[in-house]
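Our working data are protein records whose layout never changes between entries. The record below serves as our worked example for the rest of this section:
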Amino acid sequence: MEVGQFKIGAIIQARLGSTRLPNKVLMPLPLGSNETIISQVIKGIKKVPEVSKIVVASSSSVVNDNLETHISSFKIDCYRGDENNVLSRFYEIVKKYSFDYVIRFTADNPIVDEVLLKEFINNFIAQDLDYSYSQNLPLGSNFEMMKANQIIVAHENTKDFYEKEHVTPYIKRHAKNKEDYKFKKIEFNNELRLTIDYPSDYALIGLIFSMLKDKPKSLKNIFKLIEDNSWILKINQNNFQKKNYKNIEEEIENILPVLRERELIRLEKLLKNVAK
């Protein structure tokens, strides 16, 4: 199958209601420039000709009015729907634009490696997959793609709040033809966070954009930059990614390395006993 015969939509989840870093997607990137975090996401996707159309999926909350205004300046459509049911937003976008395939992005992940994204898309089409998620890339730079009909099926069948909020869990569980696509030739320091959740994440990404200047923000260039300036990793090394834990034991297991690092020995022992 040829990629060009299909309508591939890139849907960017975006909102301004972040509690850890409010209005983050409208923050300048790099600092002092006219570009924003979300505009860098859009610019990265636009470099990939396989993508037919870009749509931003936001919520109808008034807090996102400024986001819609900002998005319109790039001649990008902004669909606004249910605040918590993000899956319903994707469903409505798929129905409105008649996409054959959807690639899911989030507005706080501004590193879009166009070469790797092209490879990922072409593999997905060639294998005729229902769902795929890339592996072995830094946090915030992986790709997630699915057939558009998988979104329709998920929306019409799931009643689970978590699955509605996070879009793809139902699809992951039910897709019959799926693949974890591994970029085996890519080697990177697994401490590298290229997502923006905290001020220190923003500082790191801003520094990367500033130091690379006009060079492509590819992972190859980022890895070389960090190889030459390993201290960069220390900027956001203590940040944790939000995660839904199955039980208290799993939560304790996740926090123990932090307690150990800060030499909170008595608290570490106490929690270990709780987890037994």
